[in-house]
Amino acid sequence: MASKPGPLTQWPWHNLGNYKYALVAPSAAYSTYRFVTASSAAERDLLNFMVFPMLLLRLLYGQLWITVSRHQTARSKHKIVNKSLDFEQIDRERNWDDQIILTALVFYLVSATMPQAHVAPWWSTKGMVVTAVLHAGPVEFLYYWLHRALHHHWLYARYHSHHHASIVTEPITSVIHPFAEEVVYFVLLAIPILSTVATGTVSVVTANGYLVYIDFMNYLGHCNFELVPKCLFHVFPPLKYLLYTPSFHSLHHTQFRTNYSLFMPVYDYIYGTTDKSSDELYERTLQGRDEAAWRPDVVHLTHLTAPESVFHNRLGFAAVASNPLGAAASGHLLRAASAVASPLLSLFASTFRSEANRLDKLNIETWVIPRFTSHYTSKSDGYKVSRLIEKAVSDAEASGARVLTLGLLNQGYDLNRNGELYVVRKPSLKTKIVDGTSLAVAAVLNMIPQDTKDVLLLGNANKISLVLTLSLCKREIQVWLVGDGVTDEEQMKAQKGSHFVPYSQFPPNKARNDCVYHCTPALLVPESFENLHVCENWLPRRVMSAWRAAGIVHALEKWDGHECGGRVTGVQKAWSAALARGFRPYDYHHHPGITHDGRGGL
Question: Where, by residue number, does the polypeptide cross the bilayer (predicted)?
Answer without folding.
Answer: 46-68, 100-121, 127-146, 183-213
